[in-house]
Amino acid sequence: MTIIIFLIILALLILVHEFGHFIVAKKSGIRVDEFGLGFPPKIFSKKWGDTVYTLNALPFGGFVKIFGEDAHAGEISNEDRETSFVYKPKWIKASVLVAGVFMNVVFAWFLISLGFVIGLPASSEYSGFGEVKNTNLVITEVIQDSPANKAGLISGDIILSVSSDNNSLQEKDLDTEKFQEFIINNSESKLVITYQRGTGVPKNVTVTPTLNEVSGKKMIGVSMDEIGTLKLPVHLALAEGVRTTGLLFKQTVVGLSQFIWDSVRLKSDLSQVTGPIGIAHVVGEAKSLGFVYLLTIVALISINLAVINLIPFPALDGGRLLFLLIEAITRREIPPKIVQYSNLLGFVLLILLMIVVTSHDVIKLF
């Protein structure tokens, strides 16, 4: 079921992205030859206007074929020139290219806003349009290979109680500070933690604290926060959705920029990167926590897809935008073969990176 949900999410996000290119191209008078749902082989097709709409067998997203997106092999008629991407002003080309990114951001905003209408998890320290209610002590991060990680705890788990041989701390008394103090004061004992995942039945795990060499204190390897539900009316949800989407977009740009800079200096940490298998695993965890968590994860993936596509690298929208910028500055067209070979090389490198990241994801599963 997790794989099916992941494929549906992937298809939806790619379709949203491609629809952005499609609708702006259409509105700009550019001919779109095909809008495909999934990838060939073709199952069904129907032509409306100048565009063939196809349903294809491989359900991994979609694509658009924009007339003139690649240079024409020979001379074309004046009528075709009017509907060709390559003969449009550069600002229109840029608009078509950036439209996919824009749609991914808008889609993320819609999902986050919907989450606030339903009731989205928020920190008790939130100060904004509404009030956070029904707070619980929730795990926000689990360190890899830590006692908590080995015990099976994950982000989003609600802590209901913690006990040692001689002491216990119940839900009504739990907060971040008291939980940390309990761990330190009972670090010589095995601790029994009762937690709840999503709407599931409470479960117990046994955790033995280990010494943190940096702080010199015993720890179980989790970060925690007091998190409740923030539910807003539609108009406030839309406003808070804008703020939250902007914040997440900024954080994603900063994080990706730092990773690229570390890669240039050969200091990058591959564990920071997640491929399809890792994302599917995250989707599965979010699904187990509840629908609103799944909405948040899909929004985050959509924002990441938008930011990655803005990277000025061949085969990505950002690479095509870079070529446009170079042409605008030099006032000369880049030879089509250079563009084609650059995009081909970029595509191959991206596939190789995906293979490496996916292999790393598989290794982490064992």
Structure, described:
Helices cover 50% and strands 22% of the residues. With 366 residues, the protein is an alpha+beta fold. It folds into two domains: 203 residues, no CATH class; 98 residues, PDZ domain (Pdz3 Domain, Roll). The strands form three sheets. Strands 3, 4, 5, 6, 7, 8 and 11 form a seven-stranded antiparallel sheet that branches.
Mean pLDDT: 84
Unreliable spans: none
**N- to C-terminal distance:** 21 Å
Number of strands: 11
Number of helices: 10
- Strand residue content: 15-25%
Reading the helices and strands in chain order gives: HEEHHEEHEEHEEEEEHHHHH
Count of individual domains: 2
The structure class reads alpha+beta
Task: Give a brief description.
The protein is an alpha+beta fold and 366 residues long. It is built from ten helices and eleven strands.
Provide the fold topology.
Layout: H1 2-27, E1 32-48, E2 51-66, H2 78-82, H3 90-118, E3 120-123, E4 133-142, H4 147-151, E5 158-163, E6 168-170, H5 176-185, E7 191-196, E8 203-207, E9 210-211, E10 218-219, E11 222-230, H6 234-264, H7 276-289, H8 291-309, H9 317-330, H10 336-364
Antiparallel strand pairs: 1-2, 3-11, 4-5, 4-11, 5-6, 5-7, 7-8, 9-10
